[in-house]
Write a structure and sequence with these properties.
Length: 153
């Protein structure tokens, strides 16, 4: 479903992009809960879910990259690339910390917050403004997670 987000973005259908993003995000939150409640969760399932979440997130940012490329907007193309990296680093910092045995579910903007902010930006037809916000808050979140691990290690 997430693939429909960049398709809508390139077409300039912002409300559709926001709807698809929330729809896909809803199922992303739901799949882990269903697996745990149905006794279907396991280490591989958790790994696969997390890996597929990163792919899903990257697909949304690919939409930004394609949109700005088609608009010939090199400044915001670079912005989208940087925010993509920061967004993935938020998740990586948590995963790496947990691999070291440090609980790291801290920070201003975890993945659900990024999804909601971007969806609001799509619905408001102001994706660039909200992309900046996601970038700044993701940077702060990465720094908070680095500080958490430094403090606990």
């Amino acid at each position: 479903m997430t693939v429909l987000v960049p398709i809508s973005m390139v077409q300039g259908k912002w409300a559709a992009a926001g709807g698809w993003l929330l729809f896909a995000g809803f199922f992303d939150v739901l799949d882990g809960s269903l697996a745990r409640n149905g006794a279907l969760s396991g280490r591989f399932g958790a790994f696969l879910d997390s890996t597929l979440d990163r792919f899903s997130e990257a697909v949304v940012f690919a939409g930004f990259l394609l949109y700005y490329y088609h608009q010939q907007d090199s400044r915001n193309l670079l912005l989208a690339f940087i925010v993509c990296i920061l967004s993935l680093m938020v998740s990586y910092a948590r995963a790496r910390a947990e691999g070291l045995g440090v609980d790291c579910e801290v920070g201003l903007l975890p993945r659900p917050g990024r999804v909601i902010l971007l969806a609001i930006g799509f619905f408001a037809a102001q994706p660039t403004v909200f992309l900046y916000a996601v970038g700044v808050l993701s940077l702060i979140t990465v720094l908070q997670r680095i500080y958490r691990v430094w403090n606990k290690a």
